[in-house]
Design brief:
Length: 67
């Protein structure tokens, strides 16, 4: 039996029924798409290097100018 976060199959069915009652069956694909896009952007952001913490070295323009 599939157990995720201490939830069994009957609990997941109850949660799904409550979600359908709140949002309606027509809204579920839209909600699923929004959640999918959010997860995709989170994964993309977590894989990109953090430029704020490690900025690329910038050359000092004063060093290149003749005195």
């Amino acid at each position: 039996m599939l157990i995720m976060f201490g939830l069994g199959f009957p609990e997941l069915i109850i949660i799904l029924v409550i979600v359908i009652m709140i949002f309606g069956a027509g809204k579920l694909p839209e909600i699923g798409g929004a959640i999918g896009k959010g997860i995709k952007s989170f994964k993309k952001a977590s894989q990109e290097p953090d430029e704020k913490k490690n900025p690329p070295p910038q050359e000092d323009s004063d060093k290149n100018k003749p005195a």
